[in-house]
Every structure is written in structure tokens, then in C-alpha cells.
Amino acid sequence: MATQSVGVVKESDPAERRVAVVPEVVPKLRDLGLDVLVESDAGAGAWFSDSAYTQVGAAVRGADEVAGADLLVCVNPPAPEWIAARRAGQILVGLLNPFGRPEVVRACAAAGVSALSLELLPRTLSRAQSMDALTSQANIAGYKSVLVAADAFGRYFPMLMTAAGTAKPAQVLVLGVGVAGLAALGTARRLGALVTGYDIRPETREEVRSVGARFLDLTGVSSGGGEGGYARALSEEERQAQQAALQQRIGDFDIVITTAQVPGRRPPQLVTQEALKGMRPGSVVVDIAAGPLGGNVEGSVAGSRTVVADGVTLIGADDLPSAMAPGASTAYARNIAALLGHLVQDGAAAINLTDEIQAAIVLTTGGEVVNAALKGK
Questions:
Q1: Residues 361, 335: contact at Cβ < 8 Å?
Q2: Does domain 5-120+325-369 have CATH number 3.40.190.10?
Q3: Do 362 and 115 touch, CB atoms closer than 8 A?
Q4: What is the pLDDT of residues 52-75, one digit of tens each?
Q5: 8 Å CB contact between 372 and 122
Q6: Which one-letter DSSP state was computed for residue 22?
Q7: What CATH number does domain 140-323 carry, 3.40.50.1950, 3.40.50.2000, 3.40.50.720, 3.30.70.920?
Q8: 203, 254, 339, 351: least surrounded by Cβ within 10 Å?
Q9: Domain boundaries, the chain
């Protein structure tokens, strides 16, 4: 059997600085029996030079040659037109956003490409944890969100006693206590802020306390625990009650960081314009969940766009992992290497829908949409 190859695709979005494979993991992929082809300048945005790849055994090639590899790895989904030019039987692995980009799924099925999307990885499986790209990237986003907030905030985070007087510590509220939320809570706490967390899932109360933060109790708001550790979508009545309760409390905080998302759905709107008006001038709000359809904060704009109104700075920060491209790429590449280690046997990758991990993440194969979560969409 001829040696199979894995192609590291350069991201098409010029704002995306991450790369799917870093030099560190190239030897691991070669140990699987794969030839590693890296598109020229694919790692430049994360400060990984072409020579860094060749030094560890990868071959740097042009876009067309890389696109012909048996396995293709990316961060964000490629354009449907690019997918349409691929040959049947190729395998594409990445964060393919299948619910937000259904045209990508259709293009993969039409081209006969087997598409594997890391967003759908079953996070409750212990053997899948090393492949969990959502967790690795959310950790970075939560950490970076606090640094973004601190940079925009015109005061200290910790309490400081100086000859010029005492500076009070910043009051930080984190809405959504998933991976990103916990990372934000821990980072803000290490910077010396007084930190509070809130989530509609009751099990997060102890998680908030475990990082030294307080839990925000809201009266009249129902529990929102869902499947797989995620929050469920609230009813309209529940959502309005939550917004009203938050509106009464948000003005107590200098910085608000929002991280709440529900898989396959528009992020819940937690903070209204009225709530923002109740915050003190100089306050900062960072919305990690900002996206094309909106975010957790009314009026946030994706792409680290900053809006200032009534003295409150609102930052739509959906691209924070890209802003930490070297670290984010390294974490993501380790996830990719772990997944390919599971997928590749005896130097060849094969789709096996009886495998629990593959059954969850394979979107298309054999020219059909096979993922249960996507059928009928």
C-alpha cells in the first residue's frame, strides 16, 4: 500500500493566524506512517516558518499539491468552491462549523469527501479528551478575554496601596461557566480582581467556588442544565426573567465577560442595552460569544470590534484564539495529532462509523450526509 499523506492547509481567512499543525507534532504524524505536506507560509501567522517544518521532516509545497493529500487538516472550514475541486475519498478534518455552515457539509457530500468536525467530539468520553479542540481553544479564549478587558480598563485589577492612596480592586463578573468561563474566572482572580461567576446550570456553583470566585444568585431564574454538560435553551419567559434579574445586578461590576453558548443554536442574549446603560462610565464588557447572528450582549460586533456608548466599552471578541496564534495552534495541533492517531492504523486512515468517536464527528462519507445530528437540516 502506498504511503498516505496529510496536507496542512493554509487558512483562507486573512484574519485567521492559526495553523492546524505545528512543527512540534510533525514527528508524531510521521510516526503514524504519514507523509506530511505543509502549504507554504501556512504557519507564518503563528510565527512558524517553512524551514521549521522542513527541519522536522515535513515537505513544504504549493497549495495545489497540498490540496491533493489523502488527509487534509484545517482550523476553519474551507470555501465550498475549494471543497468542490477535491477528489472523492479524501478526508477533511477541522472545526467545520456544521450547523453554521451547512453549505460546507453539502459541498463535502457532493465531492465525495469524508468530513470530520471536531466540534461534535463527544466530550464525555475520556479517550476523546486529548482530541478536544473546543476545550483547548475555549481555554485560550477565556484567558485572553481577561487580558483584553484589562487592557481596555482604565484602572487596576488588584487592590494597590501606594503613597498616592489605595486603588480598589476591580469587580469582575463572568457569565457562563464552561471551559472559557472558568479560565476567565481563574485569570481574573490571579490578576487580583474580586471575581463573581454565574451560570444557569446548578452544578457550576461549586466550580465557581473552586477557583476562588463567588457565585451570583439571581432570584426568579430557573435552572437550565442540559445534556452533555451544556446549558439547555431557555423558553422566552425564562430568558426574559434572566435578563431582568441580570439587569438589576450588572451595574455592580466594572468588567463583564460573557461566554455562554448552546451548541447548534444562536448564543443566548444575556445583557441588554438597558443593562449596559446601568453600568458605570469606564466599565468594560467582553463578549466571547459574539458572532454573525449576535452574541450574549445586545449590540456586540464580532471580530474584536469595539463599541463605546455612554462610557461603557463593549468588545465583540470571538477571535481570541487567533490573537494567541502560537499557543492556540500548538494546542490545536496536539488535538489533531491525537485524532489522527485514532483514525490512522498501519499508515492508512479509514472511516469506521461503528467507532463511537467517528460516529459522532463524521459529517459526510461516501457522498452522503451520515451524521445523525445533521440529517434533515
A1: no
A2: no
A3: yes
A4: 999 999 999 999 999 999 999 999
A5: no
A6: -
A7: 3.40.50.720
A8: 203
A9: 5-120+325-369, 140-323
